[in-house]
Amino acid sequence: MRQLDALKSPRFTQISTFGRLPICEKNEEIKAAFLGIPFDDAVTYRPGARFGPMGIRQGSRLLRPYNQFLDTYPFDKLNACDMGDINVIPGYIEDTMNAIQTSLYEIISSKNLVPFIAGGDHSITLPILRTLYKKFGKINIVHFDSHYDFWDSYWGKKYTHGTWLRRAIEEGLIKEAVQGGIRASTFSKEDLRDKERLGIRSFTIRDLKYNLDTVIREINSLSGPTHVSIDIDVVDPAFAPGTGTPEVGGLTSFEIIEIVRKLRFDKLVGFDVVEVAPPYDMSEITAMLAANIIYEGMSVLSLNL
Ligand SMILES: [Mn+2]
């Protein structure tokens, strides 16, 4: 219960680490770490997700050590800590992807540490997957979003927050892809064919709302290394307004938290929550939700320990 002294202190006097966890120190036996990637130059609409990591840290201050629904002390079991943020290069998408790959590989290559990453826009998931692939080989991706994110390009450009999933599949990084929560209008009916062609098992928001057990069963039957990527816009803007590309008619905050609680993994190797844009948030509700999603993700991981 290493972090308990800090947890007893008044919340407003603490430095902003995720969950008021200690800052990671070298050579610790860390099984999970919070890591920020404050990059948002690959968005197609509203910027602001570069402030996501600090917003989520701020929104995480009320997290407490015991999760009664999963009966676990995630922070303690995982010896969790906050690694700070990766140095990104504002304005330079491909340079930033390289920087993410270098830093993240340094972090995970020699340790059995699962990074819990706060974006940043969704473009960061491509370099995350490349890095996980370098260590583990092909990765399953479990993707919650209101958007497909498998577009070929925007304005003729291949690297954006709406193209990372197609790039990851084209680059051969992905073993199986399951996505859920899709509801945004698309550019044409033809676009929908791509999900079969790319081999993505895609579930709409209706599937999550009406047939959740089926979706959970699909996800929980995946074997091998798995990365979870949650775009906060899978949640309804009424519950998560602080995001760059909001789509109405989404999950409630309770629903996304419950979904995460039901996930079980053969081997969870990475987890990201992206597209939290504090400039559009109100009363920190989006940031608090993102923080709690990460907390539940850590809790699920801790169940295997
Ligand atoms: Mn999205």
UniProtKB/TrEMBL annotation:
Binding site for Mn(2+): 122, 145, 147, 149, 231, 233
Keywords (A to Z) from UniProt: Hydrolase, Manganese, Metal-binding
EC number(s) given by UniProt: 3.5.3.11
Cross-referenced InterPro entries: Agmatinase-rel, Ureohydrolase, Ureohydrolase_dom_sf, Ureohydrolase_Mn_BS
GO BP term, example: putrescine biosynthetic process from arginine, via agmatine
Cofactor, how bound (note): Binds 2 manganese ions per subunit.
Pfam families: Arginase
Keyword Hydrolase (UniProt): yes
One term of GO molecular function: metal ion binding
Listed cofactors: Mn(2+)
Keyword flag Magnesium: no
Family statement: Belongs to the arginase family. Agmatinase subfamily.
Protein name: Agmatinase (Agmatine ureohydrolase) (SpeB-2)
Annotated source species: Saccharolobus solfataricus (strain ATCC 35092 / DSM 1617 / JCM 11322 / P2)
